[in-house]
Amino acid sequence: MKPEIAAQLEGYQDMLQLAQAAEILGEDFRTEKGAVATYLERLHPARLSLRVSRIRTETPSTKTFRMVPVDGVLPPFQAGQYVSLHVEIDGIRTNRPLSIASPPTQSGYYDLTVKRVPGGLVSNYLLDNLQAGDRLVSSGPDGCFVYNPLLHGNRLVFIAGGSGITPFMSMIRETCDRGLDRQITLIYGNRSEDDVIYHAALTGLAEAHPNFTYVPVIEKPGPGYTGETGFMTGELMERVTGDLSGAMVYLCGPSAMYDFCLGELQARQVLARRIRREMFGPPVHVSQCPGWPADISEDQSFAVSIVGGPVVTARAGTPLLTTFEQAGLAPPSQCRSGECSLCRTRVLKGRVFQPAGVPLRQSDREQGYVHCCVSYPLEDLEVLIEAKG
Ligand SMILES: Cc1cc2nc3c(=O)[nH]c(=O)nc-3n(C[C@H](O)[C@H](O)[C@H](O)COP(=O)(O)OP(=O)(O)OC[C@H]3O[C@@H](n4cnc5c(N)ncnc54)[C@H](O)[C@@H]3O)c2cc1C
Ligand code: FES
Predict the structure, then answer these.
(1) What are the tens digits of pLDDT across the range 206-229?
(2) Binding site membership of 96 for ligand 1 (Cβ less than 6 Å)
(3) Distance from Cα 334 to the centre of ligand 2, integer Å
(4) Please, which pLDDT band fits residue 28 given cuts at 50, 70 and 90?
(5) Of all protein residues, whose CA lies closest to atom 38 belonging to ligand 1?
(6) Which of 9, 12, 24, 135 has its CA 20 to 30 A from that of 3?
(7) Which residues pair with 230 in a beta bridge?
(8) pTM, whole model, 2 decimals?
(9) pLDDT at residue 33 greater than cutoff 70
């Protein structure tokens, strides 16, 4: 811009004086060019290089992997967030989200606790193969299953099942470490005493912190067990927490547990806006979701033609993302629960099933976009995977 035109702009002289003063004082802000992007990349990196520094066996089916940065520092996170761990197993490039179980107060590592899923690809691989010293790549921390100080109040009821304890462990540890003004009751359901993850740590925290109450619930206890047993009913929730209506209830665990507990909460008039849920991946049996067509079985298969790629055979009960990965493709993905939008795929021909509640923009819906991590073929398809992994 010509100097005579610039001189007529409002505020130009002030800016010029400020820049000259900064230069005299040795503060040339032009050197800060690009600094914002650099800081953002440090706070929200797309990829992290991690190394396993320690492995701890929690239960017969669960281990905690302590992950440290290969170099540099780990970005901060909010208790309740996850990272998505990338692996390649027998030529299949895939990832799995895992909640960070350590608290944000521990900035040097992320603890990732993995529970074995029978028949599951990645949990079995990690539990059987990962050794101290191994390196892995993950996403940066993400997810919105976090405490909101403006909206959630200070009476919190955490309802966890199995590996669904992990985001709560981070939140509980943070509350205890920082002495935060929150009343937390954790109701933690498991099939047997052997399945309870972090039992000793939770018991110790409850003994040391009067604002944290820990209630393990065992569905099928062994002889002599004296604690709570059976399912996590509304009656039990009310008995151990008092009035539920003023509390913020967080749920995390298998979808069967979620469906049951949600019904119990609704029967006690707990408002939908006072219930928060972490999705722990796609439904195990999608045909049990409301709206699944009765005439299609999960084992039926369809041909999916990928624009610019192969035609693959897709099982109706398997998410399209998994089918693509099994075919050697690696579309971008992160949450594998329909929430982050990274796996957005366009269906050009054919019908897919998407469970109710998957967030999708109206414009995406109109143009045939789906989140392929929670989309299931109901007939032969033609799809366009726009982003490359
Ligand atoms: C935000 C978030 C946080 C999470 N945090 C944790 C955590 O802290 N700890 C933890 O342990 N897990 C966590 N999970 C779950 C985790 O990401 C995985 O879903 C879980 O470990 C299972 O992965 P997998 O690869 O072993 O099983 P998958 O291979 O994905 O299989 C899952 C199920 O599908 C069945 N299945 C697999 N392939 C097929 C097929 N072709 N046909 C039919 N059925 C099939 C399996 O038998 C199994 O029952 C989290 C999930 C989310 C979304
Ligand atoms: S991977 Fe996040 S929406 Fe599909």
Answers:
(1) 999 999 999 999 999 999 999 999
(2) yes
(3) 6
(4) low
(5) 120
(6) 24
(7) none
(8) 0.89
(9) no
